[in-house]
Amino acid sequence: MYSELKGRTAIVTGGSSGIGKSIVERFHEEGMNVVFTYHSGDEDANKIVDDLDSGEASVVTMKCDVTKEQEIIDLVKQTIDQFGGFDVMVNNAGIQNDVRSHELSVDEFDKVINTNLRGTFIGTREAVKHYLDTDKKGSVINISSVHEIIPWPHYAHYTASKGGVKLLTQSMALEYSRLGIRINNIAPGSINTPINEDFFSTPEEKEGADDFVPMGYVGEPEHISNIAAFMASEQSVYITGQTIVADGGLSLYPSHRDPEYDE
Predict the structure, then answer these.
(1) pTM, to two decimals
(2) How many CB atoms lie within 10 A of CB 7?
(3) Which of 39, 235, 249, 259 is a Cys-bridge partner for 214, taking CB atoms 3.0 to 4.6 Å apart?
């Protein structure tokens, strides 16, 4: 637990499931007010609010499409209006899909880039604006992927977006570091979340996924949310522009090959 987080406010995009949901829950456990977004599935989002919105800390949900600049601007404004400001911005919303590169349309490419990279940029930019306006030494935490450094066949658009997030994080962190604004990146490996459920659809596939990780098992969302809490706290005050890789050792392996071309 990080006592200094109690009473602070965080924004978490894509907070209705998976890693985002776990971060919302962990921040609330720390006594933070949390505003989280969802793109679809308001029932899941509202259930999280019903389950958590009690005691001193508030939990609020808002629908937001992170590919639309104005919706992120409105999200930040509404958070400031309701809570007087915020201290932590977590850009977590992201998508992925399996498409061989020669069959990948520009529209599909743009959709992933606009969600994963452009949305992260807008969220980071708007957080920095607020921190500058209020002279606040705030924190931005971007959720990337181990595939910012590991190539992945059939996911060229996804890896491009996450590689972009890595350098976006580093560049903006360097730009604002003298002002005490910290911008960092968490790169999860294989995590047991809805976005990855197709990889674990049978016991055999789950066993294979576990075996592929050097530590012998697929990670859980709380492995990432624990890091997010640390990165939001004063315990990480001297860390900026860094990627914390949480992958059970997955990035220690050589890059993936395309099984369709394996002999």
Answers:
(1) 0.94
(2) 13
(3) 249
